[in-house]
Specification:
304 residues; UDP-galactose 4-epimerase, domain 1; seven-stranded parallel sheet; 11 strands; 41% helix; NAD(P)-bd_dom; NAD(P)H-binding protein; NmrA-type_oxidoreductase; NAD(P)-bd_dom_sf
Length: 304
């Protein structure tokens, strides 16, 4: 049997997946890739083959993909330019004989009328993989519960208010840990070829309902202010966020665009995240964490 390759293994999702795979696989059956393989030293010391892979340098990818049978392609961070990066990785993998590509995508990425612009990159990548000749599995994650527990809860507690354009739209918030465990399951089990899995937590909640749990846990009231999309753009403008993906400064203070955030909120408002599935439990054997459980794990980071 060939090896399992993990791209972006020095990132947070990739590192967690790498550790999960080491609980199920021998180190010599794994290959971890990174643009900065020095960051993979902990894995190299365990006997894992750690290789340099730069998705912007197709020539570097040929040797990086050698000997692989399955690959986890973790979507890169560069919204708007990452489809070309993903294409380079897929083409190199298939050329080297990789037979199954697992991709971290977005819930309802295949719905053409889903307004979230982030879905464009994900669906384009899914189509590249489907056309590649390799078997595929799309892990279509819902919104990460950890993002609500940190990037949303912390400033909301500091300010006491949260402008929001999601309306009453509900989200099946999913723990990133559960998405990682599902990826490990798909990479180490049989029977997942040519399937797409929507990965969610155990319940669907609106943003006001989510922040009400924060208030309940802290005693600090948070006023959710419903705003329209234009007011949401103005809020992000005031934060200094770039409007478009093309305006993002590499390694800059804000690695996302307001286009991305505002259309994501619109997608929630229009019901594209209002879904609860049991794929996490079916694939991992464990029920997914609730949003409250993820909040409890991050509460030590909240302002006192």
């Amino acid at each position: 049997m060939g090896k399992i390759i993990v791209t972006g293994a020095s990132g947070s999702f990739g590192g967690a997946t790498a550790r999960g795979l080491l609980e199920k696989c021998a180190p010599e059956d794994l290959v971890f890739l990174s643009r900065t393989p020095a960051k993979l030293a902990e894995f190299a010391e365990l006997g894992v083959e750690c290789r340099t892979a730069d998705f912007d340098d197709p020539a570097s990818l040929v040797s990086a993909m050698a000997g692989g049978e399955r690959m986890l392609l973790i979507s890169t961070a560069r919204v708007g330019t990452r489809v070309g990066q993903h294409r380079n990785a897929v083409e190199a993998a298939v050329a080297q004989g990789v037979q199954h590509i697992v991709y971290t995508s977005l819930i309802n990425a295949d719905k053409a009328d889903n307004p979230a612009i982030v879905k464009d990159d994900h669906r384009a990548t899914e189509e590249i993989i489907e056309a590649s000749g390799a078997a595929w599995t799309h892990l279509r994650d819902s919104q990460y519960a950890e993002a609500i527990a940190t990037a949303m809860a912390i400033p909301s507690l500091q300010m006491g208010v949260k402008p929001d354009n999601c309306g009453d739209g509900r989200v099946g918030f999913v723990s990133r840990d559960d998405c990682v465990a599902t990826a490990v399951g798909v990479l180490t089990q049989e029977g997942h070829g040519n399937k797409a899995y929507a990965l969610t937590g155990p319940e669907a909640l609106s943003i006001p309902e989510a922040l009400a749990i924060v208030t309940q846990m802290t005693g600090k009231p948070i006023e959710v202010q419903p705003v329209d999309d234009e007011a949401m753009y103005e809020y992000f403008d005031a934060m200094g966020a770039p409007r478009h993906a093309s305006d993002i400064v590499p390694e800059g203070p804000i690695p996302w665009s307001s286009d991305d955030m505002v259309t994501f909120g619109q997608s929630i408002r229009e019901g594209y995240f209002d879904e609860v599935t049991d794929w996490v439990e079916k694939i991992t054997g464990k029920p997914p964490k609730s949003l409250r459980e993820v909040f409890e794990a991050h509460q030590h980071l909240w302002p006192q």
